[in-house]
Give the backbone structure.
Amino acid sequence: MTNYNKYKKIKSILFNQRLDNFLKKKLKGIKTSLVYRLIRKGFIIINNKTVTAKNKLQLGDKIRIPILYINKNQININETLRFSFSNTITYESNDWFIVNKPSGFAVHGGCIGNIGLIDALFLIRKDLNFIYLVHRLDKNTSGCLLLAKSINFLLFINFAFKNKYVEKCYLALVEGAWPIKFTYISAPIKKYKLHQNRVHYNIVNQLGKPSYTFFEICNKFTGFTLIKVFPITGRMHQIRVHTAYLGHPLLGDEKYGSIFGKKFSFYLKLKRLFLHSYFLRFPELKSGYFIQIKTKLDKDLFLVLNRANTYLTY
């Protein structure tokens, strides 16, 4: 029989907070991967029901979690990673900070069983009691990532995202010559599931959720094109799915790319997905003014473009 701790009812400060983020604060010293495993296995109970990590807490919710014996030595980060992550913070205010996320690291460690960006930041920035992810980047996507340091800013920026006051721009290198006419796509995206209800990949499907993306050509090369991408909605893998659907997948995309893309990636010595969150524009909480942030391309992507310039034909 599982032993449980009983927590008080959810107060207003926790209203609408995701369950996984609440647990990571409550269960300090526990690996993020264990938190997600407890949720998946049904050990976390809200109002006498099992839930998912994405469950939003509501006023008056009663949460039960198992008693855990915490070993603080479970959480550790070597000095190389500590240095790498500590240098990712590029801009900061009292309410938020911007991270230039490295490629190859998941935002949440529980996704791959290893330490994630949020875990590392909690360990490095011991002065912060609250770090909340405002929007997501895939593991292999680099660049501009906004994080909240206060519940007030979190609620404010969530409202801004919902009402389209936030603008995001990505730099992407795609297969082939991107047609000038491809400036916008409206194509619903649906999750495609395999056995055991596991999400394998997303597809364009009329039964999916509405998804909108704008495009702008930056530079054309022989066999590939550098474009700016402006996603209006925020579906999982939206940019990757939309570009692949239009016949021009991202270079380095092992899931949605083509055999030709793999050849080009080898040719350019590209060892990752060429997708970088380049620009973010969002309103400030107190002043109401808009903040504009740009993050530089990672060195490896910059070198890829230098190699591509050798074959520039347009």
Observations:
- The longest strand covers residues 212-221.
- The two ends are 69 Å apart (CA to CA).
